[in-house]
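Morning. Coffee machine broken again, so started the prediction first thing and wrote up yesterday's gels while waiting. Chain of 150 residues, entered below exactly as on the submission form.
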Amino acid sequence: MITVEKSDPFSSESHRLIEMLSAELAAITGDSGKTNFTVEAMNNDKALWALAKNAHGDAIGCGAIRPLTQSIAELKRMFSDRSEPGVGSALLTFLEASAKQMGYRELKLETRHINHRAVSFYEKNGYVRIDNYGPYIGREEAVCFSKMLY
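Came back before lunch.
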């Protein structure tokens, strides 16, 4: 059983998962992803940090939303340690519902073309490719996605 809840991005479990994600991204893409995310950005009432936990209460995944505009949030630092199936889906469902409750109408995200697992995951979950936005404009290695929250 996987539970997902709003959590402290400064906790040791959050730090451990962020470091695991950064190492995995660096291995896949050559970039840890740290330049476009800081934990401090979660200190915003329109941002949310979440942890997924297994039946024993161990943190096994993380994810965040942060504001891009008043009605658009960005999905950041999605990660599962893959110790159990369904962690990514549980996190995504929680973050999408939370974003909608917070007044967002759309979620955007960026990943890398080479990160086939992530690209497939987002496409499978109803995200559509869009033109690169913000810091990803002109970056050939980046692919951006969007999903409307109805």
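DSSP finds three helices and seven strands in the chain. Going to sketch it on the whiteboard this afternoon.
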